[in-house]
Design a protein that fits this description.
The chain has about 100 residues and is α+β, with helices and mostly antiparallel strands. It is built from three helices and three strands; from the N terminus they run αββαβα. Strands 1-2-3 form a three-stranded mixed beta sheet, with helices on one face. The longest helix is centred in the middle third of the chain and has 13 residues. The protein is globular, with a radius of gyration of 13 Å.
């Protein structure tokens, strides 16, 4: 399988992860800052949260980790929770902005 097909599957899976308090997935919310897939299947994802003190942080990160581990072609998953740069609503997709009433 080529790496771009695997990356498409990664994005598709990330779009199934939701912050339980927000009806938009983490990818469209702009919470995924970096997806780095190596040829050997090692995957590193840098992600943030809408607020650093999010009470559901562990749940969301765990959900991302478990779902990414199920993607064919992915061997090892590292999810880094980062807060630089700070998340801003401008990071959201147009669909997410529409869903949340920002457009």
């Amino acid at each position: 399988m080529d790496i771009s097909q695997t990356e498409e599957k990664i994005v598709k899976v990330l779009k199934t992860v939701y912050d339980p308090e927000i009806p938009v997935n983490v990818y469209d919310l702009g919470l995924i800052y970096r997806i780095d897939l190596q040829e050997n299947g090692d995957l590193t994802v840098d992600m943030t949260l809408t607020a650093p003190n999010c009470p559901l942080a562990n749940y969301i990160v765990e959900d991302v980790q478990m779902k990414l581990e199920s993607v064919e072609g992915v061997k090892n998953v590292t999810v880094n929770l980062v807060f630089e740069p700070s998340w801003d609503k401008d990071f959201m997709s147009e669909e997410a902005k529409l869903e949340l009433g920002f457009l």
